[in-house]
Write a structure and sequence with these properties.
2 copies of one chain form a homodimer. With about 270 residues, chain A is an alpha/beta fold. The first copy, chain A, has one domain: 3-Layer(bba) Sandwich (Glucose Oxidase, domain 1), CATH 3.50.30.50. Chain A has 6 helices and 15 strands. In chain A, the strands form 4 sheets. The first copy, chain A, has a 9-stranded mixed sheet. A two-stranded antiparallel ribbon of chain A has the order 2-3. In chain A, helix 6 links the parallel strand 11 and strand 12. In chain A, helix 5 packs parallel to helix 6. Chain A is globular, with a radius of gyration of 19 Å. Strand 3 of chain A pairs antiparallel with strand 3 of chain B. The complex binds manganese (II) ion (2 copies). One manganese (II) ion binds next to strand 4 of chain B. Chains A, B: Pfam families: Cyclase (PF04199).
């Protein structure tokens, strides 16, 4: 049976019955890295330096040294990223449960709401309205907030920073607790630079996604793209972080497997 | 059908019918990076610097900046890594065909040969003997050379460097050409620091894996571990490199999906 499933996976990918969608932004120097208030130390953006390029430093080969942070570009947040998750088992990139690196996803389309209000806050009411249409969110699955952020954000002010801080979408405290306590999801993902809303510094507690998800051994994915190519239910996410010793997170390639009958529920 | 396959994948992973095996070495400063003759520029080993750890630099969060090369730790070689593949389409980490990031694998167990001779050279004869026992190597699949290198190598001389250069296993020129021209494989992977044999600088052409595989738009994977946990046929490899702009390769998490009826052929 398991061999049949794996053969089916390879065959369906080859024949296009399962479409693969790359949810990853290209790692490049210009892609914005999260900016904290200046009293805190900052994460580095991506940079690359050529070691050799078919030249005297290496006649037949091209390669680069690279510098970045664990939270640069499309990346994964591990539980130990936040103080609430610091002592949990399987909480760093080198101790994660590998079986969680393949998991179903539900996609909450908030693109209209974000187009009308870039600081849109995801609430329990919104999640329950989604469930009324698409069914109960299954335990162990990713919840992705689709914002189409690349289309609505000002490229020169990608985090939408204003005088009173950033305005970008994210969940409120109750929505975070509901996803964990009522639905036992695997993690929460988005297209913006942080999983928490731009104004989440003012929530109680601040940064509720980080506070509650990391504190429950759950995950985050951010700086993704192409969420508009995913169905509401039925897709499967491959998210395998680098195995960094004691890593708090990791840039990674996030891939979605999308069945051709996209509306068929995952379970 | 495609939805059924994806549901089956999630169910079998949850129930243990499909076992996930992590083929990745932990990214850590001590893990050896390939060393070239000193006239060439070198790739950096992995290093990490704490940005904050629940302290004054970031009271609620822990994260690190990291530096490494595209070819540090368990990593992927893209076609543009070698001059023979420099102008091929889909040849860098940001232009790779994503469908190739999930592919079957055949595992050639050379652990006995390597235990007897650390510089063991894989030949066409050896591959044909493997086929006589396990069936024809299918097109589009990975070929992994299992050496159990971690068990046989001297930890203080991991590349097994001697006066006349390194002695570690790898394929000869004819084996590389045969895998490409007669079997059209996807790539070649191993547990040693390089896909080419330690003595491959003296082959004609030098470094035949790099020369022929990169020049044919095919791939390499190296510095893997746990290949002794894979069946000869029937497993599926997930190898999704970072999406580095013009990247020649990338550290990555390599995962294997192993069916419980391991001896059943993949096709
Ligand atoms: Mn992060
Ligand atoms: Mn390499």
């Amino acid at each position: 049976m398991s061999a049949t499933v794996l053969n089916g996976l390879i065959t369906e990918i080859a024949q296009g019955g399962i479409k693969m969608v790359d949810l990853t932004e290209t790692l490049r120097p210009e892609y914005p890295t999260i900016q904290l208030p200046e009293e805190f130390k900052q994460a580095l953006p991506f940079s690359a330096e050529v070691i050799s390029k078919y030249d005297g430093d290496g006649p037949a080969w091209y390669w680069q040294n690279i510098t970045l942070s664990e939270h640069t570009g499309t990346h994964f947040d591990a539980p130990c990223h936040w103080v609430t998750g610091k002592d949990l088992p399987n909480g760093s990139t080198d101790t994660l449960i590998v079986e969680n690196m393949i998991a179903p996803v539900v996609v909450i389309d908030c693109s209209k709401e974000v187009a009308a209000d870039k600081g849109f806050i995801l609430t329990v009411e919104h999640l329950q309205k989604w469930e009324a249409e698409h069914g109960t969110i299954p335990a162990g699955c990713w919840v992705f907030l689709r914002s189409d952020w690349r289309k609505v954000a000002d490229p020169d002010n990608y985090t939408n920073m204003q005088e009173d801080g950033a305005h970008s979408p994210g969940p409120d405290v109750a929505a975070c607790r509901w996803m964990i306590e009522e639905r036992d999801v695997l993690g929460f993902g988005c297209e913006t630079v942080g999983t928490d809303a731009g104004q989440a510094f003012s929530f109680d507690p601040p940064y509720p996604h980080h506070y509650f998800f990391m504190g429950s051994g759950k995950y985050g994915l951010q700086c993704m793209t192409n969420l508009d190519q995913l169905p509401a239910t039925g897709a499967v996410i491959i998210s395998a972080p680098l195995k960094i010793l004691n890593g708090s997170g990791s840039p990674l390639r996030v891939l979605a497997l999308v069945p051709d009958r996209a509306q068929e529920p995952a379970q």
